[in-house]
Amino acid sequence: MCTGSCAKCLGGTLIPLAVFALLANILLFFPGGKVIDDNDHLSDEVWYFGGILGSGVLMIFPALVFLGLKNNDCCGCCGNEGCGKRFAMFTSTIFAVIGVLGAGYSFIVSAVSINRGPKCLISQNNTWGYPFHEGDYLGNSDLWSRCQKPSDVVPWNLTLFSILLIVGAVQIIICAIQVINGLLGTLCGDCQCCGCCGGDGPV
């Protein structure tokens, strides 16, 4: 099992994660599962498109590059044929870094939103804003009643942004693995095994 096979396994994992992130971010535009009357009433972080751009669209490119590396996977180390393969592995490293940045962006946006809480109609003064401070609502569900509208916006946003947070963290780990895998493939040739996805070691 060579580095190209490992990259294909990682790429295949990124695709469903990217789709999952896209869907989660799209659902955030419908707080509580309902269409909102005014887009200004959506939380600011929803418009940062962390799941759509960072963990979604931007992650498709590294995934496709990783999947394509298997076609170049051949254990002809130290020969002329290896130059093209090593360049392909180096290219995958660059895309893996892009993936880390995209997933990191989604992770940060999600973490900020979870800490800040959702934008809603505040029951105390009947105005739209952010009623929570420094994540105080996370450990005290009684505070959720501060949000009058949209209904169920607190658990809705918390669940979806938590999903994006986890997806972003997993994508960061996967892309970081490919950075190491790509560097090994670039420096040592295709016969350097990364040992993932059932790898049998150097061939």
From TrEMBL:
Keyword ATP-binding among record annotations: no
Compartment annotation: Membrane
Chief site of localization: membrane
Transmembrane spans: 12-31, 46-67, 87-108, 158-177
Pfam families: L6_membrane
Tree of life domain: Eukaryota
Keywords, comma-separated and alphabetical: Membrane, Transmembrane, Transmembrane helix
Membrane topology category: Multi-pass membrane protein
Family affiliation: Belongs to the L6 tetraspanin family.
Name of the protein in question: Transmembrane 4 L six family member 4
Native species: Rangifer tarandus platyrhynchus (Svalbard reindeer)
Lineage summary: Eukaryota, Metazoa, Chordata, Craniata, Vertebrata
